[in-house]
Amino acid sequence: MISPNNDVPLWSDIALRTLVNTVSHPIKYAKVLIQIGYEPIPPRPTTTLFGKPALALPNIFQYVKYIKNVDGYTGCYRGLIPKLCAYTVSAVVFEKTAKLVKFDKEPSKEICYADLDESQRRKKCIYELIRDLISRIVGIIVSHPLDVIAIRMMAQFVGGETKYNGLFRSFVEVYKENGIMGYFAGLIPRLIANASVLILVSSSAYVIDKYVIADRELKPYIVSTIGFVATTVTYPFLVVSNCMAVNNCGLIAGLPPQMPIYDSWLHCWSHLSASNQLKRGNSLIWRYYTGPQVIINGQAMPISKYNFHLKTT
């Protein structure tokens, strides 16, 4: 987490994350397309580890290769600029907000954590959690319009559109299609996902530190593990958030038959849950088609080659 008392770690962290996000963008781009339900490559007959007939979908690297074959190398970086801008804005707002949020009864930061009594430690954890929650929520709200633009730029791959091209033009296009609320499409499930992860990690770390593990050197590894589990548990909210970001936005990716028009994010959740699609994209290596299929000569085959992209995990 970025320190609210030093601008050097802030900008060095932003520079490092910018590099990492740039290198990994093609994979994240392909994952977004999977999350919104687009599967351009037909599944192939295979078997699971238990020998059961199944239909295997391309892994993330095969998906990226497909994007490269269609759009070229530079096409793998659709949406990168607004995505980097969104991260930078979120990080800066988080840091500035964290500086402003203060509590009268919070233990002094100059006192070592080990020197605090149990009551002070509990208060310190609670105040830090509240500060992080407020800062994270504000950062997400301010940067969310840029995330919406990034996702819609990526979603244009589905129909080959160019409506969302350039930051300024994209801001105008979002307003034309959905008005002011278009900038915050998918915001609520995204806030729920991030807030839930923060609460789960913070509370679990405190409980483990107090009751389970006394060795503070192991704490970072335990917290990382808890963070991974929490992210996995809240993953469906991110799928719903990305679907709502493109739903009914004037792109083929957000309109029938590719995607139903949802009344709200709860409607989207209900529909994806009913069709077992809330975790699509969660597995990037072993992916299986879960839609209607028939067994022919011992091999699983999709009933229709035209609808397989609507039923994936």
Strand order across the biggest sheet? 1-2-3
Query: What's the tally of helices?
Result: 9
How many E strands?
A: 5
The largest β sheet comes out as: 3 strands, antiparallel
Distance between the termini: 32 Å
Residues in β-strands, percent: 5-15%
The proportion of residues forming helix, as a percent range, comes to: 55-70%
Low-confidence stretches: 1-5, 293-297, 303-313
Average pLDDT reading: 84
Shape: globular
Q: Please compute the radius of gyration using only Cα atoms.
A: 22 Å
Query: What is the structural class?
Result: mainly alpha
Q: Would you list the SSEs in sequence order as H and E?
A: HEEHHHHHHHHEEE
What does this structure look like?
Keywords: Membrane, Mitochondrion, Mitochondrion outer membrane, Repeat, Transmembrane, Transmembrane helix, Transport. This is Mitochondrial carrier homolog 2-like. Belongs to the mitochondrial carrier (TC 2.A.29) family. It is a multi-pass membrane protein. The structure is a single chain. This protein is mainly α and 313 residues long. The protein has helices at 7-35, 60-75, 80-100, 118-159, 167-178, 187-212, 219-233, 235-246, 265-274, and strands at residues 44-47, 53-57, 287-288, 293-296, 299-302. It has a three-stranded antiparallel β-sheet with strand order 1-2-3, with no helix packed on it. The longest helix has 42 residues, at 118-159. The chain is globular, with a radius of gyration of 22 Å. The two termini are 32 Å apart.
